[in-house]
Amino acid sequence: EVQLVESGGGLVQPGGSLRLSCAASGFTSDDYAIGWFRQAPGKEREGVSCISWSDGSTYYADSVKGRFIISNDNAKNTVYLQMNSLKPEDTAIYYCAAELDYPLVPLTLIERLYDYWGQGTQVTVSS
Q: CB-hemisphere CA count at 13 Å for 69?
């Protein structure tokens, strides 16, 4: 069974950096994508970034492009989200999720296409 466990959240000042980790297990092939999503209080969950596990292709939402970097470490079965130049509006619960239809389905941040979800980790950007 696919399992995803996020870690690395916390409190950071505006302009600071934080790195989130998503430990992934239970996959039977390399044909899948891992996405990061976030949900701020009172708002709908939104896609942040995603990466293909097999070839490392990436995709970013416009709101984080140039500030966030997604990467994967095959040896550790972990996907990272390096978040730089953080803003108060980045405050949210961050979730990682797995999409098992890649590459039949191109990299996407459409939430309903993701099959498995982690429990989330809180990120708070505040002075």
A: 8
